[in-house]
Amino acid sequence: MSAPQGAAGQERSGSAHGSSARERLARAALTRVFEPGDERGGRWIREIGPVELIRRLAGTDGSALTLKGMTEPRLAGYRLRAAGADPGRDLADVAAIGGRFVCPGDREWPSQLDDLGDARPIGLWVRGRIDLRLWALRSVAVVGARACTPYGAHMAATLASGLAERGWVVVSGAAFGVDGAAHRGALAAGGATMAVLACGVDVAYPRGHAELIGRIVEQGLIVGELPPSDHPTRSRFILRNRVIAALTRGTVVVEAEYRSGSLVTARNALRLGRFTMGVPGPATSGLSAGVHELLRGEGVLVTDAAEIVELVGEIGALAPARSGPVLPRDRLDAVSARVLDALPWTGAVDGRDVARGAGTSTDEALGRLYELNSLGFVEREGGGWRLTQGRTPDEGVRRGGT
Questions:
Q1: What is the pLDDT of residues 48-61, one digit of tens each?
Q2: What share of the chain is helix, strand, coil (3-state, %, to 5)?
Q3: CA dist., res. 371 & res. 396, Å (int)
Q4: Measuring CA to CA, which residue among 360, 392, 390, 386 is closest to residue 373?
Q5: For the segment 272-284, what is each residue's pLDDT rounded down to a tens digit?
Q6: The domain spanning residue 197 has which CATH number?
Q7: Predicted structure pTM score
Q8: Which of 61, 220, 381, 387 is the most buried (most CB within 10 A)?
């Protein structure tokens, strides 16, 4: 395991940002050795450092067996992987596609990932011209079902475009369904989006999203824990979700069944103290059952971008007050409303009957009836009064202006 000369320039430039060249090489190698989220590996890195750890794993002096939790079978597996690691080539390969390797301690490292403790990424492989740390500071995850309904796709795209228009970065996993709709919604609004992959950042997965991933590289960021060319697995998708949860200010689940990776993201967000939100769906929809269960617990119900920003944004970023439509009758004072209530649905009555029904004097009732007539609620019929034909007591037309 040695770095080729072609990677030396990148190693030096990387060290200027925080991590030393040796540590960067060691961490790059360890992304080939440990699976994402391996807490044993994270503990060993914390205790003895990445350079010493890769030396022990690649060596034959038996010093690796002194690590707590290390067994001979486990060491054999790690050594097999370490023997095939070529971090210099990986760094050169990612640089060739315009990418980089970001390590803890680098200026670009998002410090909120440290909340994962020993399960934090060893480092992140990144494609895109944007500063990862700065984008992550103002980001929201929008996740959900792969086999989503048209409603789920619509809600994901609408939420993402609304967040993008408000200056928030939309983070998701580039999968089919809700993830893809969220990325497209943000891009359509000319906004920012970031995809966290469960494979190498040079791998377009799923293949059907190759064009979308290409657009994200051009306009946003592609991030992953796995080195170049590494493939996704079922467990890697699940482990990837903890990065999405930790990287963002909050997680929104649009559609999810009871067994869903999106709910794993939501539970990670809850455990990390992040805002966790859900978009309700039909009570009869199995694809919304997991979201509804989340909302019965600690999840917060949201229906649009403004409600999301109210939670994750700065103090005072309140969603607009919601209410039903204001009817013309709502603007009437209490006495006028009682006079209007005193009129029957059909037929006409005189002013004394109206006054009796409204509990007021005849003069007061007549004065209010003339006001109601000018507003279009009532009309004269012979010597009496009736509701305006074709209108209910809740309706009225202001005559002569507003």
A1: 999 999 999 988 77
A2: 50, 10, 40
A3: 12
A4: 386
A5: 999 999 999 999 9
A6: 3.40.50.450
A7: 0.81
A8: 220
